[in-house]
């Protein structure tokens, strides 16, 4: 029987993918005590980056919001593995961190990151409300437009 969070994902039309393997020398997540830290995830679909380039210079804010949402879906796929397949173990989304590839004059980073934050709240309700950092960067791995990492408290 699907758990509460899996049912919510289904209601939202989201199927979590098979988690991507790391692109370099790191692990996809680390658990310490009741905290799970998920490494940054890019907006990949079937192992290919779906949104590349710079936000505000070829990538619209709306496209970047969708990329941030896709990044969080990939974070949740890693988190499900960390939770032994049971996302109902998630008690709190503690923190999300977002990296937005953009030119120096772009200032809409927070609006882009709302794509991930809004999804966290849609999936987890009040437990999805989190602390957050959003940073503009000149480039990201594989020319991804956005990357999102997360920290979660689990049972």
TrEMBL record:
Residues of the Endoribonuclease L-PSP/chorismate mutase-like domain: 6-144
CDD domains: YjgF_YER057c_UK114_like_1 (cd02199)
Top-rank taxon, per record: Bacteria
SUPFAM superfamilies named among the record's database cross-references: YjgF-like
Gene3D superfamilies, sorted: RutC-like
InterPro entries: Endoribo_LPSP/chorism_mut-like, RutC-like_sf
Protein name stated in the entry: RidA family protein
């Amino acid at each position: 029987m699907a758990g509460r969070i899996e049912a919510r994902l289904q209601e939202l039309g989201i199927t979590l993918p098979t988690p991507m393997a790391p692109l370099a020398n790191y692990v996809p997540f680390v658990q310490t005590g009741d905290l799970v830290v998920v490494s940054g995830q890019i907006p990949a679909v079937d192992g290919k980056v779906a949104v590349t380039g710079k936000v505000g210079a070829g990538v619209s804010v709306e496209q970047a919001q969708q990329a941030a949402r896709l990044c969080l879906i990939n974070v949740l796929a890693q988190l499900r593995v960390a939770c032994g397949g049971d996302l109902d173990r998630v008690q709190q989304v503690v923190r999300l961190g977002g990296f937005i590839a953009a030119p120096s004059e772009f200032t809409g980073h927070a609006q882009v990151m709302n794509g991930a934050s809004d999804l966290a709240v849609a999936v987890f309700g009040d437990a999805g409300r989190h602390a957050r950092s959003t940073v503009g960067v000149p480039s990201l791995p594989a020319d991804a437009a956005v990357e999102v990492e997360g920290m979660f408290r689990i049972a």
